[in-house]
Write a structure and sequence with these properties.
single chain, Arc Repressor Mutant, subunit A, mainly alpha
Length: 98
């Protein structure tokens, strides 16, 4: 996966991760933050590699679906690019994350 796409998915997780199931968050974090391979995860969870892949795909699809409806990432990027007082910018960005 290219770095920009990976970072986008991680950014979506930062915004919407609380909306995922516990299982989806666990798989996502193992793969994207702990850098475990699909094979390692399959062994850890005693499931097939395909099962891990499906779970990760469902998680990413859910995050993208939330963004398509709520547009928080888009709003976050717009605020971040604004030429305004840095304190105000930080306040606005933190409001989006609440």
């Amino acid at each position: 996966m290219e770095d920009d796409k990976r970072q986008y998915i991680i950014d979506l997780y930062d915004l919407y991760g609380v909306l995922l199931t516990d299982k989806q968050r666990e798989y996502f974090e193992d793969y994207y933050f702990m850098d475990l391979s699909i094979t390692e995860m399959a062994e850890n969870y005693s499931i097939s590699r395909n099962g891990v892949h499906d779970q990760l795909k469902r998680s990413v699809n859910a995050l993208e679906e939330y963004e398509s409806k709520l547009h928080l990432y888009l709003k976050f990027k717009k605020i971040d690019s604004m030429d305004i007082n840095p304190n105000l910018k930080e306040e606005l960005l933190s409001l989006l994350k609440e």
